[in-house]
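=== Per-residue structure ===
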Amino acid sequence: MSSGRSAGIAVDAAWPAERFLKEVRRRWLGPTQPWWGFVFTLPILVLLVCFKFWPMAYAAWLSLTNGNLTERTWRFIGVSNYARLARDTTFIGALETTGRYVGATIALSMVLGLGLAVLLNQKVPARGLFRTLIFLPAVVPIIVVPILWQFLFNPYGLVNDALKGLGLHPVNWLLSPRGALGALVLATAWRLTPLCMVIYLAGLQSIPGEFYEAAKVDGAGAPRRFRSITLPMLKPTFLVVVVFAITLTVQNFVLALVMTGGGPDNASTTLSLFVYQRGFLGFQMGYASAAALVMLSIIVVFTVGSLRAFRTEE
């Protein structure tokens, strides 16, 4: 009798602990708890902090020092690097070159990309094959692109052969200031246009076909449909293309480094190439970090401006 009573007491004593454990499992270990999302995203968050946010914070601190790889001790110098940038004619020239380079490349890539997207959105024979072939430049390794275009823009290359065939004088593309920048624009647009085309295609395919059918019934021709339906409906897509193209073009320095090396006479030195030259060739890491932060600020300003310019009213 006493043993049965003691067993009942033990069971009763275990009940609160069991209820507590069940409550803990339900609140903290259930499959629907929101913090599970944080657990699953923790690895990528760690990677972002280690390889993106921490380097950015370190570069911001480095821009306030006289960091130089040839010196053991670095000291805090405030905004002296930024003041030096404002007086550096090479940096100012790189800013102007970057503006012309980015503006011409984005304009050319957006126009060609939109035209190709509209064309390949139609029901044309072998449409899938043409889409694949046109997209090939986008998957060519980035280091291959400048080497390929160096051969094309050689004084005895295919571009000058084509000009001679048209009765025009050949151009020394990579050794003249205007020719070097124009060569960079064409080479970058060749790689960027297919990427813009794919984004435009996604936007075009999201436009309901009923809009075009209704416009046809109302007697609207193809130009009117394109102007009144396609362009307004692609406004969010334009935003994606502009932000993507600005970020990719401003940061790209491989083409300028391999094709022209920034020459002749810094005529093709872009901002990203300036950062590379000062940091990894001149060992002036503090000065290069300041220039890199200026480049980041430019990207942010243009991105915010694009968000405002292409903002759609709900």
User: Anything to note?
Assistant: The chain has two domains: 2-51, 80-309. Confidence is low (pLDDT under 50) at residues 1-14. The chain is about 75% helix and 0% strand. The two ends are 77 Å apart (CA to CA).
